[in-house]
Design goal:
- It is built from 6 helices and no strands.
- The radius of gyration is 31 Å and the shape is flat.
- It starts with 8 loop residues before the first helix and ends in an 18-residue tail after the last helix.
- It is an all-alpha fold.
Length: 170
């Protein structure tokens, strides 16, 4: 686990204990509810907990998919042998496991689609001069100056500077 500067000693110890107990931290190792609530106010700790949560969820999903693949091949083997009368309870449990895995994968697909919709609805950042500035800063300054002059000379701007010279003298 990388050393995160934003965490205090107690928070780091708690996260190390979580790393040492991949199957779940014993209840005696958890901080008090008050301390955990206080820790959750800190963005660094929240990021660490979110990272752990994502890793555990991924591990759980992979375990479920592996178990479902094994269950489906065992189900096919039992049904192909014609021994489905004797093992009704076992077949029902295998079918249930495959259903749970199917439900979870469907849920993941829906959440990914919702995230894509959120990303689509989010307005794009204005990208008028930024790419030009990155490629050619001098050209970007010139464009900014020209835009500023065009806004100042616009017909809708009552504060626009007026030409002091007569039209014939220009």
């Amino acid at each position: 686990m990388a050393h995160v500067i934003e965490l205090n000693r107690h928070q780091r110890e708690f996260l190390k204990k979580m790393r040492e107990h991949p199957r779940g931290l014993p209840v005696s190792e958890f901080p008090s509810a008050v301390a955990l609530r206080r820790w959750m106010r800190h963005p660094g700790f929240r990021r660490a907990i979110a990272s752990i949560r994502i890793a555990i969820q991924l591990q759980s999903d992979l375990n479920l998919l592996t178990a479902a693949a094994t269950a489906s091949s065992g189900l096919v083997a039992r049904l192909a042998d014609g021994a489905h009368d004797a093992d009704k309870l076992q077949i029902a449990s295998l079918v249930q496991l495959v259903r749970v895995a199917h439900w979870r994968s469907k849920e993941l697909r829906q959440s990914e689609m919702q995230q894509q919709l959120i990303d689509i609805k989010r307005p794009p950042e204005p990208m008028i001069i930024h790419p030009i500035h990155a490629a050619n800063p001098a050209r970007a300054r010139e464009l900014f100056r020209l835009l500023k002059e065009a806004r100042a000379k616009g017909p809708d701007n009552p504060n626009a500077p007026k030409d002091t010279k007569p039209a014939a003298a220009q």
